[in-house]
């Protein structure tokens, strides 16, 4: 079952903007859209404004905002607030897992809607009318705007929180009964929480341990603290700590060469030479090879489908061919000398400039190293899509 995520309707290609146009976002529709069910909303059209319509802006007056037509000065504030209140009441019973807003929109801008004085002078930036009320009503839901999703770190963090919220709604909130549901959820997310805040992991652990029985108050406290923790950035240093922690589970299994290779991969990630997916993929291989049941259920190793977002510096959109690796990584390790590409699916590779012909493992679709079309070399750790 797909998660339900709210979105500004113009980002899906609906012609609802003031100029009767749209702002369709290919990543949201073609990539992330494969994993979510969109719940489109347009506050301007919803409150009864026509398409097309005169441009509007926000006026900051003391402690309140006014939504006014830029040329005529007509005030649409109360109309927008009435529709917003009715819509948010309806959303109270809708299992949304998050929302993607339209950047710089006077109604739906998340952080960068422009504010003006009554005299027309700039007065700062902030959330739009609808976005402000939405965040105030649903402070725990993951929210972003499509502009900020161009940042790889923000995009990964947002999608991680989306899938966590979806698992919460499915595995915990949608069930009732014993506290074991919450305990199992916490166990599965331990390493993911550690990657965002080791102190937060201890804090949540105490909360679960002290809970005598499952109740709404315990769930609400846990979810509030969890989403606050996941909102923190999972830095390279924190991820290295988690990777080394996972490596400790294999100290009785790995031979000297395997240990050395894993340490090298983690070191290269720490140095910024490879994306996080490289050590994670190698660890996934060892989890399957040595059958580690605790690690097999850890969300950290597979927080979302890799084709939903790259765990690295760039994303891939169908129909375009972008190298998912850092240029320094690809340049250092070498790239195939002959290849043909059709919608990012490599059709033939003759040899790798570093490894030689024996190192090319696949032609066409690759194994789950990147989850998408391409070739890969696990020994020398390069990939080309």
Give the helix/strand layout.
Layout (H helix, E strand, L loop, with lengths): L2 E6 L17 H6 L4 E6 L1 H4 L9 E6 L2 E6 L7 H15 L4 E6 L11 E4 L5 E5 L2 H9 L5 E3 L6 H22 L6 H9 L1 H7 L1 H13 L5 H15 L5 H12 L8 H15 L6 H14 L2 H4 L30 H7 L5 E4 L2 E5 L25 E3 L4 E3 L1
Parallel strand pairs: 1-2, 1-5, 3-6, 5-8
Antiparallel strand pairs: 3-4, 6-7, 9-10, 11-12
Helix pairs in contact: 3-4, 5-9, 7-8, 7-10, 8-9, 10-11, 11-12
* Quantity of strands, as a count: 12
Strand content: 5-15%
Query: What composes the largest sheet?
Result: 4 strands, parallel
* Cα-based radius of gyration, to the nearest Å: 24 Å
Given the helix and strand composition, which structural class is it?
Answer: alpha/beta
Low-confidence stretches: 310-385
Percent helix range:
25-40%
The SSE order reads EHEHEEHEEEHEHHHHHHHHHHEEEE
Strand order of the largest sheet: 2-1-5-8
Shape: elongated
Separation of the first and last Cα atoms: 30 Å
Q: Quick check: average pLDDT?
A: 82
**Overall structural domain count:** 4
What does this molecule look like?
The C terminus is likely disordered. The chain is 39% helix and 15% strand. With 385 residues, the chain is an alpha/beta fold. The strands form four sheets. It has a four-stranded parallel beta sheet. The chain has four domains: 146 residues, no CATH class; 79 residues; 66 residues, no CATH class; 58 residues, no CATH class. It is built from 14 helices and twelve strands.
What distinguishing features does this structure have?
disordered C terminus; alpha/beta; 4-stranded parallel beta sheet; 385 residues; 4-stranded mixed beta sheet; 39% helix
């Amino acid at each position: 079952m797909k998660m339900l995520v709210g979105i500004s309707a113009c980002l899906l290609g609906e012609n609802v903007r003031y100029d009767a146009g749209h702002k369709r976002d290919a990543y949201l529709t073609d990539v992330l859209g494969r994993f979510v069910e969109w719940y489109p909303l347009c506050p301007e059209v919803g409150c009864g404004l026509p398409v097309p319509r005169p441009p509007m802006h926000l006026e900051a007056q003391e402690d309140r905002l006014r939504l006014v037509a830029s040329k005529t000065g007509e005030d649409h504030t109360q109309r927008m607030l009435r529709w917003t209140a009715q819509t948010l009441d309806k959303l109270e019973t809708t299992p949304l897992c998050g929302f993607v807003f339209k950047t710089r929109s006077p109604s739906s801008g998340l952080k960068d809607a422009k504010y003006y004085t009554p005299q027309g002078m700039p007065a700062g930036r902030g959330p739009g009318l609808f976005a402000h009320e939405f965040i105030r009503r649903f402070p725990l839901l993951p929210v972003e705007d499509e502009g900020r999703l161009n940042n790889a770190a923000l995009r990964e963090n947002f999608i991680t929180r989306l899938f966590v919220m979806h698992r919460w709604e499915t595995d915990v909130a949608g069930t009732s009964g014993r506290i074991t549901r919450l305990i199992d959820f916490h166990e599965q997310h331990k390493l993911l929480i550690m990657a965002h805040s080791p102190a937060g992991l201890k804090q949540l652990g105490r909360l679960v341990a002290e809970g005598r029985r499952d109740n709404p108050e315990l769930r609400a406290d846990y979810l509030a603290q969890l989403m606050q923790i996941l909102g923190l950035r999972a830095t390279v240093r924190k991820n290295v700590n988690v990777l080394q922690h996972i490596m400790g589970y294999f100290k009785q299994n790995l031979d000297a060469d395997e240990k050395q290779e894993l340490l090298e991969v983690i070191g290269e990630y720490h140095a910024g030479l490879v994306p996080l997916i490289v050590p994670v993929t190698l660890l996934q291989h060892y989890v399957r090879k040595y059958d580690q049941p605790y690690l097999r259920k850890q969300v950290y190793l597979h927080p979302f489908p890799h084709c939903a977002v790259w765990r690295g510096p760039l994303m891939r959109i169908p129909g375009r061919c972008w190298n998912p690796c850092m240029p320094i990584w690809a340049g250092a390790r070498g790239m195939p000398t002959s290849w043909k590409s059709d919608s990012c699916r490599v059709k033939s590779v003759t040899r790798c400039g570093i490894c030689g012909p024996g190192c090319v493992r696949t032609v066409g679709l690759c194994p789950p190293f990147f989850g998408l079309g391409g070739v890969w070399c696990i020994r020398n750790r390069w990939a080309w899509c």
